[in-house]
């Protein structure tokens, strides 16, 4: 899934949020995939405090369920789930043996089956089961409060979130009939299963479906017989139990047949309703699916866990005026009744349920064929199909790239990309039918921005990478989600840098790592591979750690092993595990025999480096698994402190963690692949730091040394003594002596060190002064990412004087660069993005040359009734200025309603949110929440944008509190959208009064939100903001006084 859209006013320039932290919308980055949907995007000139992004505390275990008889408690949840373990079902507990039949899988019963013939065993079992299930013993009933009860109050025979392992689905035949008038659907699911243990209870998932009938079919051909199954439903676990009159026989094929019906979902998951308005104003309805991670069960009863891979034959019934598309190509269409057509799709490859997809709509499409003969099509609503060409070409190019790179052919004959008018995240990788937000796929050549092009390319690249990483090879359980998402995020950069070199995506990679580190520096973060159990916990790990940290540690490994060695390792992994499921260790084992490019292979599968010019370079061996376990199994990342004494470079590693100064040391150690350059040599030197301290000896003394070259490593570096002074001097003198990535990483690291008290705020601010001469996009963006949050905090604390001085300092710092900007769309993608951001910054802060020009453009645009074509790079600044007066605001809103361009709509949305008029801001919240004229999918971005507005933030916080229950219903507890909204409305607070108010509200929610990771994140962030302001605010005020003369 592409987490980008995590809300996000992903204005044209914001789609990048998917790939790039935009300085003006830092708030959006706070959760880059906050979970799900990774991107954020709202570009308000408001900033959260990036350095204070919170870690992601884990949810508490799911409620524990007591076993029925003994009073002994069986807890499910992370503790019982054994993260990373291959066991799908926790060990049977004593009560499992006593209450209910599914527990027939207990060890006692198994011992019977070993010693007796099958028939005898079956008989014994069924007799025992009848005893146990038909007449539930009184000692079971005595614990009524804790033992699962089905919705009809009968005992429910399974008390775990995870399904039992002994019923295995092999093939699904789905027939689904959707009625877009009544907004209902019905269908029949036939699932071929086998049993690996005798049992008469089949547990599977079903959520919000009515099931009038279920049956079990035995045998094949003419010998088939069918018998009814009793159905029990247990909504708390989203499960049903099908009870057979007698146990299934091991090894025989059975088919369960379930008739069911449901309503199209009003949310963004399951089989859900979407609408759009035609140019003529007619509202049309379609139905689409979003199943990842746990919503396939809302569309058909199924074994809804990623390890239960099966094949699917799908039939969809629809009206003749619509079309249906699904994972596989259409085989035939049959008229089954008057006005009712049934489409039959080809049988799928073996795959997980969360990748199934189908859409019934009136979409149009455009298609092309790849070199290897795969038909690629883009589907969209008819009025926007002319915006599909860019994505179509990108998809063809990227699919061809991946087939070549992975050396594994794409296994289906087609790939459809569909733009859905209502979509919660950025995109979804359903096999053969990827789905997208319209703004993540459709490109309007006239109106779309440079960042929109970059964002669309990256999103398509991400979803197509998943066709291998995720679809072909799937994580066994959601605890290893990073194997899907970290790789897909990483492959975005690998593929697009080759297929679209003009986009220079590699420049933006390190920003992903900064983004992840802000969350990962908090005490409440979690390891990359982390236990999860229930649906809310599963949704929560669609976050920065799974996506961005995952990608960053893979990049670090690639840098260390060499690109070719790394590639051969992942190809080996994909080939070995095709159509299977994997765990963390399977990846490292595949890498174990791969050596660094300049290494030599040893018999034990490890590698050793050859001689190296650096005296300390020679390492004893390379154990990929041990090294990478330090990055995936423990949380956080290291701070590496460098002290230079003559030719000796002393290195020390410790856990980089924010929080009170007296927090205890964690004692974590990493295998850190260090890289460095010096004033005497720009060739990259390497050193694997495995111990707490070490020393390396340089051939000669140097003036400066810079570690983590190009930010390829996932760690922060502190330079003791005059190390920072040397680097600041270098930047002020000849900043081009090091790369723009290195300059950006110095800016980032300096401010990170301020927040843990290792560097003074004055020194960090001094370092930014060189930006007066900077022209490259990433160091400028990084500077803004560090500086804007500071005045954002001041805005919420009534510190007008210093706040005004600080903003003047910022504009003064960048004024030369702002003045150089042309008001055109000329230049490379990065030059265009820089222009868009700088002009917006300048205009929002009332830099008069900018404001006057923007006012002129807005006037002309308004006089032409919006038909004047503005350069897309300057449109945001023009709209932001135009929206400042009520007449301009109303005009912009009228254009919003009729615009067919996602970029333009996002730009207008952003502009509407920065007005200092409370009534209009409240109206925006109300309208976007309602969803009639502004789609509800935009609500998280609008809420967050208004939270960044100095006048609007109390309204946003109030709105969140008053509508919490409805928000959770629509966007789902644990989703990245909810996290995005929680963080967005609260993480810039920096007073104790606000902290108490936030704590009080969330604790009052109890199980409906108090345990969310994002709540812990935001509380930790506010605490950090308070400490930061207490420590640094006065120093900033004094520093500004001293700097004033120099800059102005
Ligand atoms: Zn993804």
Automatic annotation (TrEMBL):
Give the Gene Ontology MF terms in alphabetical order. metalloaminopeptidase activity; peptide binding; zinc ion binding
Query: Which Gene3D superfamilies would you find in this protein's record?
Result: 1.25.50.20, 2.60.40.1910, Neutral Protease Domain 2, tricorn interacting facor f3 domain
Q: What is the first-listed, main subcellular location in coarse terms?
A: endoplasmic reticulum
* GO BP annotations, alphabetical order: adaptive immune response; peptide catabolic process; proteolysis
Q: Does the keyword Hydrolase apply?
A: yes
Record-level GO cellular component terms: endoplasmic reticulum membrane; extracellular space
User: Residue numbers for the site described as Transition state stabilizer?
Assistant: 547
User: What does this chain do?
Assistant: Aminopeptidase that plays a central role in peptide trimming, a step required for the generation of most HLA class I-binding peptides. Peptide trimming is essential to customize longer precursor peptides to fit them to the correct length required for presentation on MHC class I molecules. Strongly prefers substrates 9-16 residues long. Rapidly degrades 13-mer to a 9-mer and then stops. Preferentially hydrolyzes the residue Leu and peptides with a hydrophobic C-terminus, while it has weak activity toward peptides with charged C-terminus. May play a role in the inactivation of peptide hormones.
Q: Which domain of life is it from?
A: Eukaryota
CDD domains, A to Z: M1_APN-Q_like
Q: Which residues form the Peptidase M1 membrane alanine aminopeptidase domain?
A: 390-599
Give membrane topology per the record.
Single-pass type II membrane protein
> Which keywords does this chain's UniProt record carry?
Adaptive immunity, Aminopeptidase, Disulfide bond, Endoplasmic reticulum, Glycoprotein, Hydrolase, Immunity, Membrane, Metal-binding, Metalloprotease, Protease, Signal-anchor, Transmembrane, Transmembrane helix, Zinc
Q: How is the cofactor bound?
A: Binds 1 zinc ion per subunit.
Q: What is this protein called?
A: Endoplasmic reticulum aminopeptidase 1
**Self-association state and partner proteins as the record states:** Monomer. May also exist as a heterodimer; with ERAP2. Interacts with RBMX.
Q: Which part of the chain is the ERAP1-like C-terminal domain?
A: 704-1023
